[in-house]
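Deliverable D4.2, example record:
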Amino acid sequence: MAALKKRVYAVLEGRDWADGTTRIVNGLLIGLIVANVISLMLESMAGVRAQFGETIRVFDAVSVVIFTVEWLLRVWSSTASPRYVGAAGRVRFAMTPMALIDLLAILPFWLPMVGLDLRVLRILRLFRLFRILKLARYSQALQTFGRVVTRKREELITLLMVLGVLLLIASSLMYYVEHEAQPEAFSSIPATMWWGIATLTTVGYGDVYPITTGGKLLGSVIAVLGIGMFALPTGILGAAFVDELAQRRLREGGQDSAGSEDDTPDHCPHCGKSLKVEREAVGSE
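Output generated by the structure prediction step:
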């Protein structure tokens, strides 16, 4: 049983893509996820829904059963990993982000059997969109993006707080400048925040805009500030991506060097510093 559990965990987690079973199982799961996303989009078309509605519902039911079995097998086999050993190991695994995404992807199908309110069920149907996030298990790009955002979360949260303060100040100033000239467009500070968001993001829908001289000057300053505010997270994420890709190359280089004849990496896996110079110096001594 322990060997079977370890085998199931290795296959579902894609530990060894050289293994035929791993490639087949994960390939089928990827294809099923993509098919579900396409089905969800087609279901929103009235013509397709009228003609193939029953087929889509059957396909959705079969897919949910497969995803449910997958989720149960992942939880059951999770204790094969040293991270989830122990009585509460499966609970810890079930609380991980990807396991929660898997659970949210199947909940809309099973919860109606509990007898929930129809309005709640309509909201829960939106959880079907979480199926597309299951692709993160198989996408190196999505995993890299997740690590970058996690690493820079403090800086991003700080920027969001600063942006919120700037939005409040800009909307308040514009309200007092433009309210008398346009009482309907700038009826209150919360209503003016719509203009503030459109201006700070440099989208500028044009449905609400200042007409007074003071409002135009203020709007120009706020628009320029908005460009700067949104350039900051771009720079932070861009630098973090470069750093993450460099570290990944170092890790891959370290693995390749570990398999070489001298079994010694060329770079330190922690700081990235070259080890060739130090080895040559030691050899000369």
